[in-house]
From TrEMBL, chain A:
<feature type="transmembrane region" description="Helical">
    <location>
        <begin position="225"/>
        <end position="244"/>
    </location>
</feature>
<dbReference type="Pfam" id="PF02405">
    <property type="entry name" value="MlaE"/>
</dbReference>
<dbReference type="GO" id="GO:0043190">
    <property type="term" value="C:ATP-binding cassette (ABC) transporter complex"/>
</dbReference>
<protein>
    <submittedName>
        <fullName>Phospholipid ABC transporter permease protein MlaE</fullName>
    </submittedName>
</protein>
<feature type="transmembrane region" description="Helical">
    <location>
        <begin position="38"/>
        <end position="63"/>
    </location>
</feature>
<dbReference type="GO" id="GO:0005548">
    <property type="term" value="F:phospholipid transporter activity"/>
</dbReference>
<keyword id="KW-1133">Transmembrane helix</keyword>
<dbReference type="InterPro" id="IPR030802">
    <property type="entry name" value="Permease_MalE"/>
</dbReference>
<feature type="transmembrane region" description="Helical">
    <location>
        <begin position="136"/>
        <end position="166"/>
    </location>
</feature>
Automatic annotation (TrEMBL), chain B:
<dbReference type="Pfam" id="PF00005">
    <property type="entry name" value="ABC_tran"/>
</dbReference>
<dbReference type="InterPro" id="IPR027417">
    <property type="entry name" value="P-loop_NTPase"/>
</dbReference>
<dbReference type="GO" id="GO:0005524">
    <property type="term" value="F:ATP binding"/>
</dbReference>
<dbReference type="InterPro" id="IPR003439">
    <property type="entry name" value="ABC_transporter-like_ATP-bd"/>
</dbReference>
<dbReference type="GO" id="GO:0016887">
    <property type="term" value="F:ATP hydrolysis activity"/>
</dbReference>
<keyword id="KW-0067">ATP-binding</keyword>
<feature type="domain" description="ABC transporter">
    <location>
        <begin position="2"/>
        <end position="238"/>
    </location>
</feature>
<keyword id="KW-0547">Nucleotide-binding</keyword>
<keyword id="KW-0813">Transport</keyword>
Length: 245, 255
């Protein structure tokens, strides 16, 4: 019953977000600020994780291919597939649910607790449009971050290959070009767009509708992380089933 | 003019407002007074539509608030200035940006016009030197005054202040009281103030509504409040020793 109520409220929130839009001159600045906070501010951690996990994927694959019958360029192939299909879009999104999600929940939640949202409403401003809409738009650039993560992941794999002496550079390059299906990229970016929308709206929902004081802001951030990850994992399953099988 | 008819509000089992009816006139400063926890903040938030209420009717110059569409409500609210008890400044903006915020949202003023207007109201609340402070760097009283400046910057038609001078020294409190009264007169706005400060009651209480236990226990003006025999009102008014002494002297003088 409670869950149903929350789900209904979530969709009403999304609808309300588009009503009575904020003046464009103000909205433009809000969007730019959110791009800076949410996307640019996350590039560092995304790049770091992508590069090193890419390397680890390569090492693990190389170490587990022991049979001499399997060609060495499969290391590059496996790295590319796991990074493009799952690691960059899904795994990075879960990390972003922690980083970006808890930032969104706690900043909107603090505004709720200190009556700043009431202050917006009393001025006749659609606070959902003012607060949530720019975050949704800013996160539409999130696929760029994932594109960078894909590139760096594969690069990390290449570095690990060469420094670890698992395969030659030529083998790796052959591997990452092997049997490339362009639709896999489409699939990955469709997923990423949907995850970006979840990353903006679920944490906003938990911050916007929270009740209580500073302690509850912390709790709301945790709950929002849990729900954002659960929804990302669930939708990942559904989308994969729908698009790839 | 704001009219309230038979307003009921509860949180679960706690009945906070139990049938309040009153009206606040244009061009007058009206005070809602009562002890801490008597429901003043809840009352004002119901007037603004921030809290849903179970029963009652609230109208702004004849427009019944609950019958307005969401967009009409927002248009009405653009004419409202509100000072929250906790100031509610936007903490990602400087004090000057906070004050300019309603202008940015609702006017087509140029940047320099907005800055001039913000300068002007910040001077009126004695905050001329705090432009570039962030709210977190300002003292409680400065935040309060910045919130007042933000509420009046766009010439509202209705002004609500939840304890505008709590946390201010007596001298600044009087400046703020006078400012609120001045702009109420000057622009003929409907002003509702929550307070338990007896100084304000004496100074600017052109209409006073006394809340106790969720009902309106008394209504009058700053002229009549010191003469009433209503026990709950005199208990509240003369709760401070200073006022008790003054009353004692007044009674002795008359004998
Ligand atoms: N959001 C809420 N949920 C539950 N109870 C509330 C809520 N807000 C206020 N109350 C209760 O309503 C009563 C009146 O509170 P209110 O804040 O209106 O008092 P007040 O008259 O403004 O007091 P003060 O002078 O201290 O500001 C209190 O008993 C309070 O516990
Ligand atoms: Mg109060």
């Amino acid at each position: 019953m409670n869950y149903l109520h929350s789900i209904g409220l979530y969709f009403l929130m999304i609808k309300e977000m588009f009503r009575k839009p904020t003046k464009w001159s103000v909205m433009k600045q809000l969007i730019l600020k959110d791009i800076d906070d949410l996307i640019i501010g996350s590039l560092g951690i995304v790049a770091f994780i992508a590069f090193f996990v890419g390397g680890v994927v390569t090492i693990q694959t190389a170490l587990n291919i022991t049979s001499p019958l399997i060609p060495k360029h499969l290391v590059g192939f496996a790295t590319r597939q796991s990074i493009i299909l799952e690691f960059a879009p899904t795994f990075i999104s879960i990390i972003m649910a922690g980083k970006v999600g808890s930032f969104i929940t706690s900043s909107i939640g603090t505004m709720r607790v200190t009556e700043q949202i009431d202050a917006l409403e009393v001025m006749g401003i659609n606070s959902l449009n003012y607060l949530v809409f720019p975050k949704v738009i800013a996160l539409m650039l999130y696929p760029f971050a994932i594109g960078i993560a894909m590139f760096l992941g594969i690069l990390g794999g290449l570095a690990a290959c060469i420094y670890g002496g698992f395969t030659t550079l030529e083998d790796y390059i052959v591997g990452i070009q092997l049997d490339f299906i362009p639709f896999h990229m489409t699939y990955a970016f469709i997923k990423t767009f949907i995850f970006a929308f979840l990353l903006a709206t679920i944490p906003s929902f938990h911050g916007y509708y929270m009740k209580g004081g500073a302690l509850e802001v912390g709790k709301a951030s945790t709950t929002s992380f849990v729900w954002t990850s659960v929804m990302i994992i669930l939708l990942n399953y559904i989308l994969t089933q729908m698009m790839l099988s | 003019m704001i009219e309230v008819k038979d307003l009921y509000k509860s949180f679960g089992d706690a009945h906070i407002l139990k049938g309040i009816s009153t009206s606040f006139e244009k061009g007058k400063t009206s005070l809602v007074i009562g002890q801490s926890g008597s429901g003043k903040t809840v009352f004002i938030k119901c007037l603004l539509g921030l809290f849903p209420y179970e029963k009652g009717c609230i109208s702004y110059d004849g427009q019944i608030f609950s019958e307005l569409s969401e967009n009409q409500k927002r248009d009405l609210r653009a004419k409202i200035g509100m000072v929250f008890q906790g100031s509610a400044l936007f903490d990602s903006m400087t004090i000057a940006e906070n004050v300019m915020f309603p202008l940015r949202m609702f006017t087509t003023m140029s940047k320099s016009e907005m800055e001039d207007r913000a300068d002007f109201v910040l001077k009126r609340v004695n905050l001329a030197d705090a432009h570039n402070k962030m709210p977190s760097e300002a003292s409680g009283g400065m935040q309060k005054r910045a919130a007042i400046a933000r509420a009046i910057v766009n010439n509202p038609k209705y002004l609500f202040c939840d304890e505008p001078n709590s946390g201010l020294d007596p001298k600044t409190a009087i400046v703020i009281d006078n400012l609120i009264q001045e702009i109420t007169d000057e622009y003929n706005i409907t002003t509702v103030i929550n307070s338990h400060d007896m100084n304000s009651v004496m100074e600017i209480g052109e209409k006073i509504v006394f809340l106790k236990d969720g009902v309106k226990a008394w209504e009058g003006t700053n002229k009549t409040i010191f003469k009433t025999d209503n026990q709950v009102v005199t208990d509240f008014v003369y709760s401070s020793n200073l006022f008790k002494k003054v009353r004692q002297m007044y009674i002795e003088e008359r004998q």
